[in-house]
Design a protein that fits this description.
By secondary structure, the protein is α/β, with parallel strands linked by helices. Helix content is 37%, strand content 18%. The protein has an eight-stranded mixed beta sheet with strand order 3-2-1-4-5-6-12-9, with helices on both faces. Strands 7-8 form a two-stranded antiparallel ribbon.
């Protein structure tokens, strides 16, 4: 099997950083065509900077990074410095990027890449708000049928909301873009809070990162040391959930995950439930299924994969 061609669309974020590292450490399974930055956890200037910091940390400075949309399609930007810190990558002390951002806008890179490749050969992997993807689909609807699959982190059902009582952060930031994506007809795999909250970085798991004794292992452990304080206090959990690496791990070892093919709609009208992923988990409507909604993960297998791959960098 040849490596799967992907575009990572991201707003790093410590957990985004780990997802990118896992992808760059797995060239047999994953061919990263480019990384597109979007405003989300922190503003665009920082997400673009952070993506390049992570590529350099991985020893992959030839990775192409593109800057995308600096605000949602129809709302003001909401950010999450309260979780990720002022820089988005608080925790480790990492050098500023030497590598430059590409001249092309991320949306145009997505469009041109999909047009240049055969249909069904490029997967989109959004780890943040879906602004870049929704904008690309709106600007160039001909690319929609070219997408092999979208594997994204976002949404929730049983775990309800982490930024409002009803909504998960990535979907809440740009529900209009999410609505475009979920109605596109592209095959979608969703990593909601329901599964990511089962991928907890407990102390022994974080020690395994630190014990790699490498720059990458130490940086990942220090990132988790920083952002776990928020989730442990909020959820009274044993550690922080590693949300976004679930996307990359699924591409490498899909058997670690299980879920249901169901209908998922995005709430875009009500301020009370704005950005809610209305997931028909129990199939009580006759709405057509449009997403594989993941509900469970082999957490030990997930962390074994992470440690093994990160040890390569």
């Amino acid at each position: 099997m040849s490596a799967r061609k992907i575009i990572i669309d991201t707003d790093p974020g410590q957990d985004d950083a780990v997802a990118i590292l896992l992808a760059l450490a797995s060239p047999e399974e994953i061919d990263v065509l480019g990384i597109t930055a979007v405003a989300g956890n922190v503003p665009l200037a920082l997400t673009s900077k952070n993506a390049r910091i992570v590529c350099q940390l991985a020893g992959k400075p030839d990775t192409k990074v593109f800057e995308g949309c600096d605000r949602p399609m129809g709302r003001e930007l909401v950010t999450a410095e309260h979780v990720h810190g002022k820089t988005g990558l608080n925790g480790p002390v990492l050098p500023d990027p030497v590598m430059q951002v590409e001249d092309q806008h991320a949306v145009d890179f997505i469009i041109d890449t999909l047009r240049a490749h055969d249909a069904g050969t490029v997967t989109l992997c959004p780890l943040g708000p879906l602004t870049n993807i929704g904008t690309a689909f709106e600007k160039a609807p001909d690319i929609i049928e070219k997408v092999q699959e979208i594997v994204l982190m976002g949404g929730a059902y049983f775990e309800v909301g982490n930024i409002t009582p009803a909504a998960e952060f990535n979907i809440y930031v740009d529900p209009q873009a999410a609505d475009i994506v979920f109605k596109s007809g592209v095959p979608i795999v969703v990593m909601p809070l329901d599964v990511t909250h089962k991928a907890l970085v407990t102390k022994p798991r974080n020690d395994a990162f630190r014990n790699l004794g490498t720059k990458v292992g130490t940086a990942v452990a220090e990132m988790t040391d920083f952002f776990e304080r928020f989730d442990k206090e909020k959820y009274d959990s044993d550690g922080a959930p590693l949300h976004d690496p679930c996307v990359t791990a699924y591409l490498i070892q899909p058997g670690l995950f299980s879920g249901r093919h169901i209908n998922v709609e995005i709430e875009t009208q009500s301020e009370l439930t704005m950005g809610m992923t209305v997931a028909d988990w129990w199939r009580v409507t006759d709405r057509t299924p449009n997403a594989m909604f993941i509900g469970d993960v082999d957490a030990d297998g997930f962390f074994s994969l992470l440690v093994e791959r990160l040890s390569r960098l």
